[in-house]
């Protein structure tokens, strides 16, 4: 397993190199966005999946770097759409540099991600990343259009499959492809990645209501303030004080007292417990999918990643 973490350390250095290769006016915002922290979970999933086979080292480093660059680009664009002020405890690119520079930085990083994939020369990776990127865009648009509106569970699941789970899935698929695993094993990794991504998003939904401010780079109740209807909110709207929750969702700048009342209205129901239960079901599915993969330290670590998603601190 030491080799996997050594690879991630090398990815960190390459991320800085990507930023330094950007147009002069974008070097600083690109560097800040790529090196301001983060779990590096997507490149780690890619590396672990690949190391269950026999990947070529340079291709592995290129793909792991590309997926983090792509992920960072999506965060920059998300923050522009949401008007977010901070992420990971620091000002967002749009808050620090303005919409024009932020949009250009995000676009540049999208291009750099696919440039890195092109250097690997495997069309399967390019196709997988492209499909995930289209899904990300569609998922973000669906979520934005649904802000403040009534959302059913299946619609919620569909947009988080695209917006969140898609990159988890493509990380695992790309890693398995580079490792030369069988199609059955790559399919198992794809299922694992999607289930993990769904559970990860549901965990974030919970933490937005009960977590600690700053751990995710945002304050408690941010989703409610932005009008984002998450799974706990969907459940609470059906079970609790829907009128108060709707008032928060409809107000672009709810007073602190109203926001606190909205959070309390959600917490007064069993929405958190139901969301945790659903997330654990996704984790169980993810662990089952790993049964088709080689019995090795990388698989054990993927199992531990899945087991720690629900109830995590950040």
Automatic annotation (TrEMBL):
Residues in coiled coil: none
Signal peptide (from-to): none
Keywords attached to this entry: Magnesium, Metal-binding, Transferase
SUPFAM superfamilies xref list: Terpenoid synthases
Any Pfam family hit: polyprenyl_synt
GO biological process, one term: isoprenoid biosynthetic process
Molecular function terms, GO-annotated: heptaprenyl diphosphate synthase activity; metal ion binding
EC number: 2.5.1.30
Family, similarity comment: Belongs to the FPP/GGPP synthase family.
Protein's recorded name: Heptaprenyl diphosphate synthase component II
Organism: uncultured Rubrobacteraceae bacterium
